[in-house]
Design a protein that fits this description.
With about 350 residues, the chain is of the alpha/beta class. About 15% of the residues lie in helices and about 30% in strands. The protein is built from 5 helices and 38 strands. The strands form 6 sheets. A 10-stranded parallel β-sheet has the order 7-10-13-16-19-24-27-30-33-36, with no helix packed on it. β20 and β21 form a beta hairpin. It is flat, with a radius of gyration of 26 Å.
Amino acid sequence: MKFSKIVANLQPLVHSASLTDVPNHDPDITGITAIDQTIPNSISYIEGGKFGKMMDKTEASALILPVNNILTSKATDLGISWLSTEQPRLAFAHVIKLFYQPFRLSNGIHSSAVIEPSVMLGKDIAIGANVVIQSGAKIGDNVCIHPNVVIYPDVVIGDRTTLHANCTIHERSQIGQDCVVHSGAVIGSEGFGFVPIPEGWFKMEQSGYVILEDGVEIGCNSAVDRPAVGETLIRRQTKLDNLVHIGHGCQIGENCALAGQVGLAGGVTVGNRVILAGQVGIANQAKIGDGAIASAKAGIHNDIPAGEVVSGIPAMSHALFLKVAAAYKRLPEIYQTVRKLAKTVQ
């Protein structure tokens, strides 16, 4: 693909481009690479000035750069075609889509699939080997269901959703349009509901269901549990990484991002545009306000206001956490000082 065609495809993200500034101003681009793994005829990107030194060794024929006169001039001097943009990473994501499309099954139903007669199937669907779809399920148009997926009774799957191999969708779960459920994920599994009795535990049946709104993505081996009553809800465009656990009755807002190994106990409420970094844990019934951010391994036991950034176990404001962390490094020194003071007092 000619570099000029890539530039045209990235409008209106492009701020400027070297379409006439370098000797080979319109190279053929045959692939995409990371900046430290470039090869001739590839395109890569640089996010900021601190990565500029990588340009000295790159073999890429084209680069996506930030709006930075020093970097664009350097690329021109090195004979590298370039385009500049306020959002280099976003532009690179668009370029990837020009060269790569995820694998999708061909339309049709594999002969080994087991589909109950009452199932409603949409148009142009793809159903792979050993898929099981139980009674009352409704599958929308252009849905892709990879091998070994199991769909329990009365599940609803929206148009253009993809279910990857070996995921399981439990009864009455509702999955919206343009969702992705990755391999090994379980949607609508039983919430952890047990009532203590003298003999041990009495199982509370989980009669609720799970709703994933449009554009939700669930990572590999994640679990979204259904509650005893009511619903567990993940609102539109929220993204879950691999190995995330959403407890029964949680309500998660729009456009949130939950990184790997995040765990939410039952009844947690998460606002819109919340970011939870890896291994964040949130206790029962806690409420997280819109736009809040929790850094990796934060342990949240209480409500977090909107826009707050928290860190640590137990979670505290990030500014306070930095002071605590600085003091932590000095604890041995402080301990020795206290011992000396104690002896002096005695």
